[in-house]
Amino acid sequence: MTMTSGLRKFVLTVHLTFSVGWIGAVVAYLALGVSAVTSQDAQTVRAAWIAMELTGWYAIVPLALAALLTGLVMSLGTPWGLVRLYWVLITLALTILCTVVLLLHMPTVSSLADVAREADGADLGRLGGDLLHPGVGLLVLLVITVLNVYKPRGVTPYGWRKQREERARLAQRGSAASRPEVSSPTRAGPTRGGTP
Ligand code: HEM
């Protein structure tokens, strides 16, 4: 079902807020992770780990799920479709991958935050930081953003088949309309090709 233009703009606004917000929350998490690794002050390391746990569960996880959900609505509610174009498919796969890795990693963050709450200075120093997951995640999120903005043209085999079917249907409607004895409506919709 294709969304009306007003609804599409509204959902796109929501999608952008969540997905770009996800990137911002990961940057904040990285800043906390860096201070957990580099700071010599026990209070700062403890506070960083507690804040990383809160940022992860209450900002990054909800934003990730919301970006995925609104991305699905954007795809299914517009002529882009979900499996017609490679950029949408790759976006979907990478977003699911990031979300799954995030959900699997967060319990470890919670355990380390618990240790940080209890540990004394020397133990806190051994906790280290958490830079790999947010660092790689941030890079993947930036790749997704570039894909979504540039929208490369590659069409999947399913997308080609759909395009051919729609062209054939439009051509059929056109030829029916040009015959005077046929009184069918000639409401030819827009071609739903690779660039809606
Ligand atoms: C981290 C995750 C994501 C980020 C950072 C992101 C980013 C963006 C951005 C910046 C745009 C605006 C592009 C423009 O209007 O020029 C956009 C649009 C779009 N996104 Fe996402 N997105 C994400 C996830 C998803 C997912 C999971 C899907 C679906 C599988 C998706 C599908 C779409 C579609 C179809 C549009 C085009 C909307 C339109 O033309 O009206 N996105 N996204």
> Any low-confidence stretches, pLDDT <50, length ≥5?
181-194
Count the E strands. Answer: 0
Estimate the helix proportion, in percent: over 70%
Largest sheet: none
Radius of gyration: 24 Å
Q: Structural class, please?
A: mainly alpha
Summarize the topology.
Blueprint: H1 5-38, H2 42-76, H3 86-118, H4 121-127, H5 132-150, H6 157-178
Can you offer a commentary on this structure?
This protein is mainly alpha-helical and 196 residues long. It folds into 2 domains: 5-154; 157-196, no CATH class. Helices cover 77% and strands 0% of the residues. The protein has 6 helices and no strands. The protein has helices spanning 5-38, 42-76, 86-118, 121-127, 132-150, 157-178. The protein is elongated, with a radius of gyration of 24 Å. It binds protoporphyrin IX containing FE (HEM). The site of protoporphyrin IX containing FE has 23 residues, from helix 1, helix 2, helix 3 and helix 5.
Summarize the structure in short.
By secondary structure, the protein is mainly α.
